[in-house]
């Protein structure tokens, strides 16, 4: 599916897609933020092994997402939504080497919910609408709430830079202007009403899939009285 980078003038009064995405996923976003696993991790009530398990799942997500983006870009179908500055897989791999050691690939345990999420990402194929939904959900989250997660990991678990490079974007010097450009690219997609609805619905699905991953992580990692920065 293709999409041009300029909206027709008669669509100027349509609610921007970035706004439709923000408003259309608000409930799912808030539910994900309130998940037990996220609250406990952010509150310092787990340990580094829980953070490492999250990084393993992220490696699976972003490998699939970035492969989808690379396919779209190679085919000229990405509508300028694929930014090299956002690439996360190398940073996640560096984190996993620090967290798990040089044999980290042999230690990866990908959860069933993560496999379902990856399958959904792989199904994007050449559909820029589906890719846009997932890229918006993940990358803008990393550039926004992800920065808070980074600070909490440093505060509660003693990280400095090693192990949390996933949250660093060295090629992006100012996050807010970059996010504004990203939203402008989303808003410039010449989608009809049906395509716009598909983007918002797929973004909701992305949040739901992410919540399922958090639930499974929560089942495996529970708060203990001795959890905190000295553990892990």
Summary of the model, kept short:
This protein has 232 residues and is an all-alpha fold. The protein has helices at residues 17-24, 26-33, 36-42, 48-74, 89-100, 112-122, 128-143, 145-157, 175-187, 193-220.
Give the helices and strands, then pairings.
Blueprint: H1 17-24, H2 26-33, H3 36-42, H4 48-74, H5 89-100, H6 112-122, H7 128-143, H8 145-157, H9 175-187, H10 193-220
What's the overall geometry?
globular
Number of helices: 10
Task: Assign the CATH class.
Answer: Mainly Alpha
What is the first-to-last residue Cα distance? Answer: 46 Å
Q: CATH homologous superfamily, by name?
A: Heme oxygenase-like
CATH topology: Heme Oxygenase, Chain A
* Backbone structural class: mainly alpha
Average pLDDT, rounded to a whole number, is 90
């Amino acid at each position: 599916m293709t999409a041009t980078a300029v909206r027709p003038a008669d669509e100027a009064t349509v609610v921007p897609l970035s706004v439709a995405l923000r408003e259309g996923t608000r409930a799912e976003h808030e539910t994900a933020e309130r998940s037990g696993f996220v609250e406990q991790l952010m509150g310092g009530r787990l340990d580094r092994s829980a953070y490492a398990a999250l990084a393993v799942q992220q490696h699976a997500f972003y490998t699939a997402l970035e492969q989808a983006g690379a396919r779209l870009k190679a085919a000229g179908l990405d509508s300028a939504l694929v930014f090299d500055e956002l690439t996360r897989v190398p940073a996640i791999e560096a984190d996993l080497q620090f967290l798990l050691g040089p044999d980290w690939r042999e230690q990866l345990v990908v959860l069933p919910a993560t496999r379902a999420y990856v399958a959904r990402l792989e199904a994007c194929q050449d559909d820029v609408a589906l890719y846009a939904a997932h890229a918006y959900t993940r990358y803008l989250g990393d550039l926004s709430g992800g920065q808070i997660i980074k600070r909490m990991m440093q505060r509660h678990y003693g990280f400095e830079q090693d192990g949390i490079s996933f949250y660093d974007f060295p090629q992006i010097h100012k996050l807010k202007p970059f996010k504004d450009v990203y939203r402008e690219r989303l808003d410039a997609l010449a989608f009809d009403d049906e395509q716009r609805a598909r983007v918002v619905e797929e973004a909701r699905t992305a949040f739901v899939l992410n919540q399922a991953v958090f639930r499974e992580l929560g089942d495996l990692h529970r708060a203990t009285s001795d959890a905190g920065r000295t553990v892990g």
